[in-house]
Amino acid sequence: MNARPHRRRPARVILAALALLGLAACATRPDPTDREAVAEFEANNDPLEPLNRGAFFVNEGIDTLVLRPAAEAYRIFLPPEIRTAIRNVLANLRSPVILVNDLLQGETQRAGVTLGRFVVNTTVGVGGIFDVATRQGLLGHTEDFGQTLAVFGAPEGPYLFIPVLGPSNPRDLAGFAVDTAASPFTWVSGNDTWQAVRITRTALTALDTREGLIETIDAVRSSSLDPYATLRSAYRQRRNVEIRNVPSAASPGAGGTGFGVGRGLEGQRR
Fold first, then answer.
1. SS in 3 state form for 72-93?
2. Strand runs (DSSP E) across 44-181, as ranges?
3. How do 160-162 and 166-168 pair as beta strands?
4. Phi, psi of 186 (to 5 degrees)
């Protein structure tokens, strides 16, 4: 009885993504004779800016009242060793999605690394609690269907900001929907225990991501004249680095810290 409603969720997610794609397609360009306006429009790639800023304002309220306090409590009550173990497990659980996208992009060597990391960390690393693979030279990386679409030549489309999920664009939003549908956790049906596992995984992913961004977002809010524009620029820069498979300066081979729909809330952070 519980399986059918659950299996309809990926379809609803994809339909929602397509609806936003259609909304983005309706955006109008400025008067072609106004060269300065056209140049700014193309540089920002944000034709839905009023709507996006409204969504950003809503997100700021949610973050201030709920997300940041929860992340602070997560940091206070769980020691670093436990948070690292949780992060390792979450990264390990995402390995199947990363592996699929490695293969779709023809990155066979990276696919081998992903598979090797999953096997080593699942077995020797006790279900991914310990990142044994990194100590053996198998460095992690992030991959998602938004990146796969970019490799296939799909344009990113206009910038979007979605409350709670953060920065995105139509390509990454569609990729996020496909990754969600492709995740084994989406399709595993069962009793209430499995449902609890899925909810716990989602909650821990959100907490882990937001906890890792406490200082970063605080710095943006305190030092930037326009936090919305700063996050928009940072998101695009990070996504371009990930699409090109450029190693992070902080940790070669691993994804950099960030948030937003694309890699989503489950990127590996080492």
1. HHHHHHCCHHHHHHHHHHHHHH
2. 160-162, 166-168
3. antiparallel
4. -70, -35
CA atoms within 13 A on the CB side of 111: 11
**Alpha-carbon span 212 to 33, nearest angstrom:** 45
The pLDDT tens digits for 24-82 are: 444 556 666 666 666 666 667 899 999 999 999 999 999 999 999 999 999 999 999 99
Q: How confident is the model at residue 182 (pLDDT cuts 50, 70, 90)?
A: confident
Report in angstroms the alpha-carbon separations of 155 from 16, 56, 158: 19, 23, 9
* 3-state secondary structure (DSSP) of residue 160: strand
Q: Which of 123, 121, 156, 128 is nearest to 242 (CA)?
A: 156
Q: What is the value of pTM for the model shown?
A: 0.78
Q: What is the pLDDT of residues 141-156, one digit of tens each?
A: 999 999 999 999 999 9
Residue 42: exposure state from Cβ atoms within 10 A (0-12, 13-18, ≥19): exposed
